[in-house]
Structure to design on (370 residues):
């Protein structure tokens, strides 16, 4: 019977995509290892994981952070205990050798179920500031893998159970090499759901640049939403800017290969992908992200000269116009930022994460390599 590993958590692409990348890495190292997932019915994993053919247990759980007291009590007194029992029931005949919690509320049920079943627990924190779930569970885990060095500063120092591994990104991006373009191209990325602030302000800033006689192109991912593509494209076409406006991208490597500068939110994976590719970036962090973690994600590249940060509350069209123009049309600046971004990339994150797991359950997984 094959050995099994379980990955619990999700909710957003920021949790689900790293979970899938981790699964791919361990399968490469242990080809005969069974990887199962635990997620929530209302999370992205409910559609993304089945589409990939993954085995996933979906729990009927609601989020707690930002919820009212009624929902919090319902989750803590009913949904969480029920979910823990449901998980342990599925493990009645075969338990995983290790459970990895990647954050999100489904991770809580998975980790508690593992602790009750005396299964080793590894936590994986993708952001520069650990989320609430991981901060609470850190005291009870065997080890926590960190995507950013700075995340360790926000954990109890005396426990010494964290290891900096970096974040594993999608493999197809690793083949992309940043290069200068005679006609600069601005890539606008708002995340999996798009970013209305960027959709409304960046096109207007580009209109200002075009009116100054500057020649450039734009690739803009606006997110799903009726009429978004048409509205944003109309703004670019009003001043004859060459633009690709898409709801979402099926081929991100191709877009990165065409781009000279990216302006985006600062989710952990977006920041890490920019670093891996060597993409100069302007980050406009989501202002209501938990613990302002997007700002600190972006700060990791700003501090080494690879990115700039514009806070949304102080950002307007005039400021965007000035900042984009100062970098997009400066080949030397773009080159320096690209070099700094590439130097900051932790390129062996997959190997580091596998090593962490190997230290926990290596002997148990040995036969899965055969």
């Amino acid at each position: 019977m094959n050995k099994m590993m379980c990955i619990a958590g999700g909710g957003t692409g920021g949790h689900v995509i790293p979970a899938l990348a981790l699964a791919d890495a361990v399968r490469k190292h242990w080809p005969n290892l069974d990887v199962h997932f635990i997620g929530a019915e209302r999370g992205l994993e409910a559609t993304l994981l089945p589409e990939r053919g993954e085995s996933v247990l979906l729990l009927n759980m609601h989020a707690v952070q930002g919820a009212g007291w009624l929902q919090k009590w319902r989750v803590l007194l009913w949904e969480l205990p029920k979910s823990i029992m449901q998980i342990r029931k599925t493990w009645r005949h075969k338990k995983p050798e290790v459970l990895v919690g990647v954050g999100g509320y489904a991770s809580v049920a998975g980790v508690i179920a593992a602790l009750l079943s005396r299964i080793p627990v590894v936590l994986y924190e993708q952001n520069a500031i650990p989320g609430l779930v991981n901060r609470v569970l850190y005291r009870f885990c065997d080890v926590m893998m960190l995507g950013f060095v700075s995340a360790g500063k926000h954990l109890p120092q005396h426990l010494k159970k964290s290891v900096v591994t970096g974040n594993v990104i999608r493999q197809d991006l690793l083949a992309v090499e940043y290069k200068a373009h005679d006609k600069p191209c601005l890539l606008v990325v708002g995340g999996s759901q798009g970013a209305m602030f960027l959709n409304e302000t960046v096109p207007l800033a580009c209109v200002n640049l075009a009116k100054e006689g500057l020649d450039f192109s734009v690739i803009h991912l606006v997110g799903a939403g009726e009429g978004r593509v048409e509205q944003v494209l109309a703004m670019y076409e009003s001043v004859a800017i060459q633009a690709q406006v898409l709801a979402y991208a099926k081929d991100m490597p191709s877009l990165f290969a065409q781009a000279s500068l990216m302006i985006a939110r600062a989710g952990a994976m977006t920041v890490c992908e920019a670093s891996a590719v060597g993409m100069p970036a302007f980050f406009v962090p989501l202002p209501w992200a938990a613990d302002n973690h997007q700002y600190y994600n972006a700060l990791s590249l700003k501090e080494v000269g690879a990115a700039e940060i514009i806070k949304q509350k102080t950002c307007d069209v005039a400021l965007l116009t000035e900042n984009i123009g100062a970098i997009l049309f400066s080949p030397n600046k773009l080159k320096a930022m690209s070099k700094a971004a590439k130097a900051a990339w932790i390129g062996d994150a997959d190997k580091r994460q596998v090593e962490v797991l190997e230290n926990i359950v290596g002997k148990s997984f040995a036969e899965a390599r055969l």
Notes: The mean pLDDT is 90. The first strand starts at residue 4 and ends at 8.
